[in-house]
Amino acid sequence: MAQKKVALACSVCGSRNYTIAASPNRTVRLEVNKYCKYCGKYTLHRETR
């Protein structure tokens, strides 16, 4: 069975650059500093559902 995926969206431009596996144990949305190729810098990316 395939895993469910959620996207990580850039908080600056809103583009969804990364996907991760959804975890039922995670109660708060994941926030990670990742590189955004559209902004050209490291920005905060938040989990979308």
Walk me through this protein's architecture.
By secondary structure, the protein is mostly beta strands. The chain has no helices and four strands. The protein has a single domain, classed as Rubrerythrin, domain 2 (Single Sheet), CATH 2.20.28.120. 0% of the residues lie in helices and 51% in strands. It has a four-stranded antiparallel beta sheet, with no helix packed on it. The chain is elongated.
Jot down its keywords.
four-stranded antiparallel beta sheet; mainly beta; single chain; 49 residues
Task: Please describe the topology of this protein.
Layout: E1 5-10, E2 16-21, E3 31-36, E4 41-47
Antiparallel strand pairs: 1-2, 1-4, 3-4
For the CA atoms, what is the radius of gyration?
Answer: 11 Å
Top CATH class: Mainly Beta
Low-confidence stretches: none
Beta-strand fraction estimate:
over 45%
Adjacency order of strands in the biggest sheet = 2-1-4-3
CATH topology: Rubrerythrin, domain 2
Structural class: mainly beta
Q: Characterize the main sheet.
A: 4 strands, antiparallel
Calculate the terminal CA-CA distance, rounded to whole Å: 20 Å
- For the record, what is the CATH homologous superfamily label? Ribosomal protein L33
How many structural domains can be distinguished in the coordinates?
Answer: 1
Along the chain, the helix and strand elements come as EEEE
CATH architecture term: Single Sheet
Q: In DSSP terms, counting alpha (H) and pi (I) runs of 4 or more, how many helices?
A: 0
**What fraction, in percent, of the residue positions are helical?**
under 10%
Number of beta-strand segments: 4
Overall geometry: elongated
Mean pLDDT: 94
